[in-house]
Amino acid sequence: MDYSELNSDNTFHKWHEYEPFDTQYARYYKNNPEIIACGHKIADVYRTFSDAKASFMFADGRDYGDCCADDDTSKLYMKSLFLKNAILVYSMCLDLSWQVIWYYTQPKTAEHLLKNGYMLSEELCNTTAVYSKLAELISNNDEHAKNLKKIMSKFQNKSEVIALRKVYNTIKHRGTISIKDLEYNNNTMVGFVEVKTLDRPEFSFEELENMLFAYHKLFIPYFESIISEIMPPLIEYRNNKMDFVDYFNATNDMNRIQNS
Fold first, then answer.
1. Calpha distance 84→208 (Å, rounded)
2. What is this structure's pTM?
3. 215, exposed or middle or buried, with CB in 10 Å at 0-12, 13-18, 19+?
4. Tens-digit pLDDT profile for residues 101-122
């Protein structure tokens, strides 16, 4: 695989700008607390997606230095290690994207934000729960929830996403996969009749690289669609201008709520 296109794909770096800081808390805590919570989780997705891309890029290394011996087998092992890690971390990004939507469906109160309700609710977050919460909002004519459900379902059902999640679940539950050109994946016994033995799902380096790159390219517009449904325009969100008295009053009110 030619890694140059992956290397130059940096459009997702603006996601880190959704990390909420003091002014965002002061401006949104009372009327739109979910924006703060979702912004925080978007920044989590950014960090995780960056880690996934980095691991994928490291698989293209020509010299792994002190990480391995200077022979072809050792270098292929390092390549396989980075590719398998990229599969795990890219797949985690999907789970985290559901948490962004989950935060949107949670109680939109300052108390829920300031008493850590959003994060405490994460243990209840799974696809079934997210769809259930979205259905509740849709029944109350929430158009954003309706669109989020479509975005989530469409991405989940893409063949490229299903393929990567399948490999992810194999590694998650079995610990590993078999990679051609690196190891021998025995699946039959020697003899005059065929006897199948236990084996592992097998992939070539090229298959894993193509799978990862297809997922990488699809995830960016998918996640940006989620951001567009939930968050205000970035230029508005990042506006840090605020009257000092308003900021002072907001921090006092947040302190009162947090300690009540």
1. 8
2. 0.92
3. buried
4. 999 999 999 999 999 999 999 9
